[in-house]
Amino acid sequence: MSQNNPIAPIPLAPVAAPPLPLTTHQVASGLAKWAISRGLLEHLPPDVDATYLDAVGPIQLSADAEQILRHKEIQSISYNSTSKTIFIYTKKKVTLKDQQTLPTNVRGNGIAYPQGQIDTIGKHLGSAQGASYALHKAATGVQFYSCGSSISPGNDASAGTMGALVRLADGLIYGLTNNHVSALCSHVQPETPILAPGVIDVGAGVLPPFTLGFHVKALEMKVGSLGNIDIAGNLDGAIFRINNVASVSSMQGNAFDTPIAVADPVEGMKVEKVGRTTRHTKGQIVSKELRPIGINYQAQSYGFTGIIRFANAFTIHGLQSDFSSSGDSGSLVVQVDDHGRPIAAVGLIFAGGPDSMAPGGTKSLMLPLRPILEAFGATLIGGHNV
Amino acid sequence: MSSDRADPVIAAEHLIQVIQPPSDCAVSISTFFRPGRALAIKVFIAPQYRYLQSRIPSTMDGFEILQEVAPLARAY
To answer: Which one of B35, B42, B69 has the shortest CB-CB distance to A287?
Structure first.
């Protein structure tokens, strides 16, 4: 071969570069995107999906695998980068026979199919965002346990929120919260101690728990569907007698004093609340339920689960993030004016659920306060140890 | 609200007649407030009844109907 007359190189068909290996997170993201695109997995709000899913395309599984996973109902997809394993959680059990069809390895990552349901019912308490309670320091220097702080029955590992102080016809002062917080869905015996902070919030370096009060009465919450029960009387409210009125304040955390006026909630109303988990938050009432809404309840220590329907619930969206979260049940919702000044109390937070249109992705559900107060014959207390 | 709109409660009843949910926990129907815009109606559908999505109209009695698939709310 003459070096002066080189042979033109023969054009070769382009060789596809081997695909770059994907990380476990990328593979899990690809599988999640496929599952979402096929309606097998709930999609989250676009910004949330963009945050948690890597920028890869969907990774498709076979039609047979899709059919099995559709039947088994995917609950969530998670991964472990260290073990290079992706977990596809299903509601129904994936059998050995199913696993003969389902892939056990995708792009070098093992695939496991555990059975498990996430975020179904009951109290999945979130960690409090900061302290789970507030001590209000009066001008005298004395500190008082504030409304909007953590409570629970003394014999249950839970926590909810003391919404307000109220006075009954007997002239005594009571704490107001949800039935499911202090009476565990009507299961707690009257005169059971109510602890503050709630049992689950007890720990080193925080306020030692003390007996804030004693459970007195819970409003009715009947389990059952329309036509079988009268749901009109279902109200998630309870009161406990304050043990030492000198130890509590009507302040909502350290944010504002409890207004003594009560107003009926309407859509568009600006509201605020102080609660055990998310503390002081601002929001807006966006919805009124037009038909009875079913709420999942659980009182684990009594083996109780059930759907309880309510005739008159309202939805609140937080202004920039969730208005409330697990553990905020019982929080007093207060109407505020355009300057954020409290005007009147309007309701109690009692539940929540996913809502793609809500900042934070979660809606808060509130029951109107007036029927609850009327059922107890109670009036709100303000100006107490403020 | 325009004058041709019904009461939202009546619109919700009409929606139920159209959707025909098999369970009273299959859907929840509420008003939906949007600042500066007309009140809408929002339908939440429980995931196991996802197939009902196709039965939900875009309007009912003058109300825009929004819809979303989401699990039942839970007490917390």
So the answer is: B42
- In this structure, what token pair is assigned to residue A100? 């003969």
| pLDDT of A352 higher than 70 | yes
- Determine, for residues A356 and B70 on separate chains, whether the beta-carbon distance falls below 8 Å: yes
In a domain, residue B2? The reply is: no
pLDDT tens per residue, range A239-295:
999 999 999 999 999 999 999 999 999 999 999 999 999 999 999 999 999 999 999
Q: Where are the domains of chain A?
A: 24-112, 135-252, 259-368
CB A285 within 8 A of CB A314: yes
A71-80 tens-digit pLDDT: 888 877 777 6
A290: nearest CA in chain B? B30
B50 part of contact set with chain A, CB < 8 Å: yes
| Residue B24 domain boundaries | 8-69
In 3-state terms, what secondary structure has residue A2?
coil
Is B6 an interface residue toward A (CB < 8 Å)? no
Is the CB of residue B51 less than 8 Å away from at least one CB of chain A?
Answer: no
Q: For the domain A259-368, what is the CATH code?
A: 2.40.10.10
* CA dihedral of A170, A173, A177, A181, whole degrees rounded to 10: -90
